[in-house]
Amino acid sequence: MAALHNTHALGDTDRSAGLISDLAYQAAWRNDHTLAQDLLGHALTRARHPAARSLLHLRLARSLAASPAPARRAALRAVCAAEHDLNRTGADRPAWCSWMSEADLAVDTGQTLLDLGDTRPARQLLTQGEHLLPATRDKTRGIFLAYQAANHLAHHDIEPAAHAATAALGLARRIHAPRCEQLVQRLTPAFRPYAHHHAVERLLHLAGDVRPT
To answer: What is the pLDDT of residue 127?
Structure first.
């Protein structure tokens, strides 16, 4: 609230929109998508810079797709708006969203499609986004790998799913990224029926902090 007050005093509407979108991100993480969408809708009335608007539209798409009753058409419109705004973005991006890139657009679009049930194009976009990501963004790479694991699981491709999840978990622990680790831990119940696979057995041991024998 103090940050919002200060950005309002400075007339920095893009930054205040970014702060509101961070609140929305937290709401979505707690599965309160109604609140997340209300906050993002409000933030979009304030944001002016294309990079800021692209990020807001992308977060809105993710929330719309992940809702208990997914709003497919609205989510796809938000994805299109995010792509359009990112294409209008130059080098003068606000510092708080300077990292926004084609990699983020690809992965979050892929995750949106995955939540909507479009698993095959989702897989292509998730893989593309992970390849586009620069080496300096390991925390984001770990999250991307967790998304890839979820996509492979949706296709019942168990070995690739386990390898992606194991890579994400190892990276998360190495760089101390608890949110990324939590994403992988949420997937482990879906892996348990496949514990006879060597890669899955290794993942489950790693997730439980027990070394394979």
So the answer is: 87
Distances (CA, A) of 171 to 83, 123, 188, 206: 29, 21, 16, 12
Instruction: Round to the nearest angstrom and report the end-to-end CA distance of the chain.
Output: 51
Q: Measured between alpha carbons, how far is 122 from 14 in angstroms, rounded to an integer?
A: 30
CATH architecture of 101-213: Alpha Horseshoe (1.25)
pLDDT value at residue 213: 41
∠ CA 87-71-150, rounded to 5° = 75
Question: What percent of the chain has pLDDT above 70?
Answer: 98
String of DSSP letters for the chain: -HHHHHHHHHT-HHHHHHHHHHHHHHHHHTT-HHHHHHHHHHHHTT--SHHHHHHHHHHHHHHHHHSSS--HHHHHHHHHHHHHHHHT--S---GGGTT--HHHHHHHHHHHHHHTT-HHHHHHHHHHHHHHS-TT-HHHHHHHHHHHHHHHHHTT-HHHHHHHHHHHHHHHHHHT-HHHHHHHHHHHHHHGGGTTSHHHHHHHHHHTT----
pTM of the model: 0.77
